[in-house]
Amino acid sequence: xxxxxxxxxxxxxxxxxxxxxxxxxxxxxxxxxxxxxxxxxxxxxxxxxxxxxxxxxxxxxxxxxxxxxxxxxxxxxxxxxxxxxxxxxxxxxxxxxxxxxxxxxxxxxxxxxxxxxxxxxxxxxxxxxxxxxxxxxxxxxxxxxxxxxxxxxxxxxxxxxxxxxxxxxxxxxxxxxxxxxxxxxxxxxxxxxxxxxxxxxxxxxxxxxxxxxxxxxxxxxxxxxxxxxxxxxxxxxxxxxxxxxxxxxxxxxxxxxxxxxxxxxxxxxxxxxxxxxxxxxxxxxxxxxxxxxxxxxxxxxxxxxxxxxxxxxxxxxxxxxxxxxxxxxxxxxxxxxxxxxxxxxxxxxxxxxxxxxxxxxxxxxxxxxxxxxxxxxxxxxxxxxxxxxxxxxxxxxxxxxxxxxxxxxxxxxxxxxxxxxxxxxxxxxxxxxxxxxxxxxxx
Length: 443
What we know:
Largest sheet: 10 strands, antiparallel
Helix content: 25-40%
Number of strands: 24
Strand content: 25-35%
Shape: globular
Radius of gyration: 33 Å
C-alpha cells in the first residue's frame, strides 16, 4: 500500500514538473515573439538632406548627361510636359533651368508609393550649394547651402626628399604643399629645399555636412626653417570692408611682392628663361628662350601677376592667343598660348584676376603658358629681378598685427617636430585607415 502511494506521488511530481517546464517554455516563446514583433515595427531613423526627411520619399540620384535638359530629366521620371512647363515658368526667377551642367549631380524626390511621382528636383552646381525646385504642393524654388564646418589642424615635418614626401608620409594632401608654396612664393624656392629643413603649419580644413572633406580652406600661420634661417608667415586681414588678407612675417613685413611669382597656381616650370638655349631639332643652334614656361593642364586659369592695363589681346603666329599687360612705366608682362582669352584691350586688371586659360595655340608641343617679362622695354628673367615689395602694412595696423600674432606664434613654437624615423611608420598606419578621398583630395 505504501509503495503504491509513493509511486503515485512520484508520478504526480513528474507531471507537475513537465507542466511547469511546458508553461515556462511557452511564456519564453511568447516573450521572444513579442520582442521580435517590437523590433520589426521599430520606426527607421530619420535621414535628412537638403532640408527633407528622405525616408518620406523614393530618392533617385543621377548626374546630368550630355544632351540632358530639365524637361527631359523630369519627363523620363513620369512627369507630363504641361506640368514641366508650369514648373519651369515658376522657377525661372530663382534658377535658369538652361544652366544645368554636364556631370553635375541632381536628386529627385518621388512619392513613396507604387506611382513614384516626382515631387521635388534638387540640383548641385558645386559641393556646397544646391537649388531646390519643389512642386509637391505649390511650386516654389530657392537656393541654399549645406552646413560647413571648419576644423583647425596642426602639422610639422622634417624634409628628407621634398615637401610632398614629408606631407604624404603623414597622410596629408599635396594641396597643402601648393598652398605653402604660394605663401612663401617670394621667400623660399620649394623646388630647392634642403635636407633637414623643417616646417610647422597651422591650417584649416573644410567639411560639408560635418563629414564630407572639402579641402584646405586656408593657412593660418606657418614657420619654415630653410638653410637654418627662420621664416614666419601669419595671415592677417588688412581691409575688413573688402575682405583683403595677406601674409606677413613676425616683423610685420609683407611676404608678397608687387608681382606674383607665377601666373598659374598648380604649376611646374618646364623651361626657364635662357638666352643660350640650343635645340637639337634646329641643328643644335642657339635659339634664345626669353620667357618662362609653366606647364599646366588645358583650361587652367591664367592670372595677371600684378595690377595693370591690358595693351594687347589677340591671336598671332607662334604666340597663339596671348594677352599683354602694362603695369607701370617700368614693367610689362605677356602670357602666351592661351586656349581662350578673357581680357580685352583697355581692361584694368588686378593681381590674381583671371585673364585667360592655358592652351596649346601657336608654336607649342604641350599645354603651358609662356610668361614673358619686360623691364624698361627689355625682356628679362623675372626670377632674377629685384622686384618691389607689395604695399607694407599701415602704421595704424602694425601694433594690432603684432598683438594678434603673439598667441599664434606661441602655438607654433609649441608644435613638436615629428622625427624622420617615425614618418614611415605613420605612413604605413595611415594607409590602412585613411580613405583615398581624405589623403588625396585636391581643391
